[in-house]
Amino acid sequence: MTFAVITFPGSNCDRDCIWALEGVLGYTVRNIFHRVKSLGSVDAVVLPGGFSYGDYLRAGALAHFSPIMEAVRTFAQAGGVVLGICNGFQILCEAGLLPGALVRNRSLKFVCHEVSLRVENCATIFTSQYQLGQEIILPIAHSDGNYLTEPATLATLEQERRVVFRYTGPKRFDALDGNPNGSMNAIAGIVNSEGNVLGMMPHPERACDPSIGRTDGLGIFLSVAQSVAKQSAVLAE
Amino acid sequence: MMVKVIVTHKPGVLDPQGQTVLQSLRQLGHRDIRDVRIGKYIEIELDATSREDAERQAAQISDKMLANPVIETFRVELE
C-alpha cells in the first residue's frame, strides 16, 4: 500500500500524515514536492493541511495551479483515491474536484480544538471501518472551514449521501450549536459523485498515534487501504 | 497598460468581515450605513494591443484564478 503525500510551499501537516501512514500504520509513503509533475506508482494521494502559498488570494487558490495538481487531477479522474485534509479540502474545492467553497469561519476566528463528528455514510472508500452514525472525535485547526455551496448542490450532496462527516456538538469548545465554523448543514467532509475523492476539514492524521491521544482518525486510512487491497485483488483475478 | 480587478462576494454569500465592520460602524453612531461588503482590489500591469485586449486578458485571468465563481464575482476597470 503506497500513499503519496504532497508537500506544497506552506504545507504543515505533511509530516503528521507521513507519521500516521508510515510510522503508525506501516504503509509506504512517497512524499512528493508540488513542483514534480508525476505521482509515479501510488495507490492513494493525500493533500495535507497547512497554509499553501500563505493562503494568499484564497485558501487553496494558488496551490491548485502547482505542477503536481495536473497529475492529481488525472489520477482522480481515473478513479484514484484522493483525500484532502483541511487545506487539502480547500485545494480540492478550488480545483473543482469537489463542489462548493470553504470561506472564512462565521466567528472570524481561527478555531483549534477537538470536535465531535457523526459518520453519515459508512459505505464509502474512506469510512468502511466505521459504523453508520458513529460519533468520532477529531481535532480541527482552521480559519476558512465554513463550507458553502449553491442550494441545488447542497440538496444533491444530501440526497446522494455525499456528506460523509457532520459536526455534531461541542466537546471542548464554545460554539452553541456544535458547528465550529458556520458550515452549511454542519458539513465537515464530503465526497465527489464517484466517491473516490474526499475532502474534510478535521485532521484524522492527528488522531492516529495512541501515544499522543485519540485514535479515531485511523479508520479513514484503514478504510482506504482495505478498499485499495480489495480493488487489487479483483484486478488480480 | 494598467488594469484593475475588483473581486466581491456574490450577493447572498455571507461576508463576515463586512458584517463585523458594519456592526462596529453602527456602534460608533453611523446609523445611516445600510451595508458593508469587503472585497479585493487587484492592480495588474500588462502588455496589450488595445483596451479590448487588456480587458479580455484581465477577464480571463480573473475567471481562472483571481475570483472563485462559486462565491465571488469580479469586474474589470481600465485606466
Task: Name some characteristics of this structure.
heterodimer; A: 237 residues; alpha/beta; Rossmann fold; nine-stranded mixed beta sheet; 5 helices; globular; B: 79 residues; alpha+beta; Mth169, Chain: A; three-stranded antiparallel beta sheet; 2 helices; elongated
How would you explain this protein's 3D organization?
The complex is a heterodimer of chains A (237) and B (79). Chain A has 237 residues and is of the alpha/beta class. The model of chain A has no long low-confidence stretch (mean pLDDT 94). The radius of gyration of chain A is 16 Å and the shape is globular. Chain A is built from five helices and eleven strands, in the order βαββαβαββββαβββα. In chain A, the strands form two sheets. A nine-stranded mixed beta sheet of chain A has the order 2-1-3-4-11-10-9-6-7, with helices on both faces. In chain A, strands 5-8 form a two-stranded antiparallel sheet. Chain A has a single domain, classed as Rossmann fold (3-Layer(aba) Sandwich). Chain B is α+β, with helices and mostly antiparallel strands and 79 residues long. Chain B has one domain: Phosphoribosylformylglycinamidine synthase subunit PurS (Mth169, Chain: A). Chain B has two helices and three strands; from the N terminus they run βαβαβ. Chain B has a three-stranded antiparallel beta sheet, covered by helices on one side. The radius of gyration of chain B is 16 Å and the shape is elongated. The N and C termini of chain B lie close together (8 Å). At the A-B interface, loops of A face helix 1 of B.
